[in-house]
Specification:
Blueprint lengths: L15 E3 L3 H14 L1 H4 L12 E5 L6 E4 L5 E3 L1 H12 L5 E5 L3 H13 L5 E3 L3 H11 L5 E6 L9 H8 L4 E8 H11 L5 H5 L13 H18 L3 E2 L4 E4 L5 E9 L2 H10 L11
Parallel strand pairs: 1-3, 2-5, 2-7, 5-6, 7-8
Antiparallel strand pairs: 3-4, 8-11, 9-11, 10-11
């Protein structure tokens, strides 16, 4: 049986389905965009020589989502980001959103345009869209990328590598712990997902150790590889859990600049577990 498409009755456009924890993730995006406005304003013209400040999403979804198991429809991260920047008084100069599903990509484009901003949208796989977006950006600008894939398979390390070549970019990355826990055996097979997510991991991580230690070692390796790119994962990695305390995902903030990391540290929840233990 074909899956029934979900539609937002407010605008007639397609919506996605998300877990009950999505608003908590969006709150982090919103708060960071608001607090970072103090820096972002230094990159907005006028004067015209200022290089601009762009927002980037490679896994944007349609911009509106239904919380699974409820009738509640909420703004997705693309609309949250736009509204938060507007509320801060320092809007982004550009917004680049991509989703591999053409219908969802078109929906987010129409929703943002309805808010009065003609954001650029793409309907490509993330590894293709990232090249197109980078080529469209001013490399001297200040940019923020939210990487929020539905699964670990889509989070290629090459995407992070390419974005990190931009001179000033902050990244907030969603790493699916749940996906890693459920599919570790399959993902760790030769040519599997882990070879794309964390290239070279086999030379540093013993796959024969206890599963708990394997997962922890793998994430530590991934963070070290990010550091080698010249950017630094913030110390406050947050583990987000579900209503039954199940481990869902890590939020990892990455920046080459100490000020950005201090801003992130100011808004993250200090009560959360921030070690890489599983």
């Amino acid at each position: 049986m074909a899956k029934v498409k979900k539609i937002d009755p407010v605008d007639g456009l397609v919506i996605s389905e998300v877990g009950e924890w999505a608003p908590e993730k969006h709150a982090r995006v919103s708060r960071y965009i608001e607090i970072a406005s103090v820096v972002r304003k230094e990159y907005r013209p006028p004067p015209e020589w200022r290089a601009g400040a762009a927002y980037i999403e490679l896994f944007s979804g349609p911009g509106r989502s239904l919380i699974r198991g409820t009738s509640r429809i909420i703004d997705g991260s693309p609309l949250i980001a736009f509204k938060s920047a507007q509320a801060s008084g320092v809007p982004f100069t550009e917004m680049h959103r991509n989703d591999a599903n053409p219908e969802m990509a078109a929906a987010v484009g129409r929703r943002v345009k309805a808010l009065g901003f003609d954001a650029t949208w793409y309907a490509e796989s993330a590894d293709v869209a990232v090249d197109q977006i980078i080529s469209a950006l001013n490399p001297a600008g200040l940019h923020f990328a939210f990487l929020d894939p539905f699964n670990l398979e889509d989070l290629s390390f090459e995407i992070i590598r390419k974005l990190s070549r931009l001179r000033r970019i902050d990244m907030l990355i969603h790493v699916s712990v749940q996906d890693l826990q459920r599919n570790l055996d399959r993902f760790s097979a030769p040519g599997g997902v882990l070879d794309t997510f964390a290239p070279g991991w086999r030379s540093d991580v013993d796959p024969n150790q206890a599963i708990h230690a394997f997962r922890s070692s793998l994430l530590q390796y991934w963070l070290r590889e990010i550091q080698k790119l010249g950017t630094m994962p913030a110390k406050g990695v947050e583990l987000i859990v579900g209503s039954k305390r199940q481990r869902l995902y890590w939020l990892v903030f990455v920046s080459a600049h100490s000020l950005a990391q201090r801003l992130w540290d100011a808004i993250r929840d200090p009560t959360r577990q921030s070690s890489m233990e599983f």
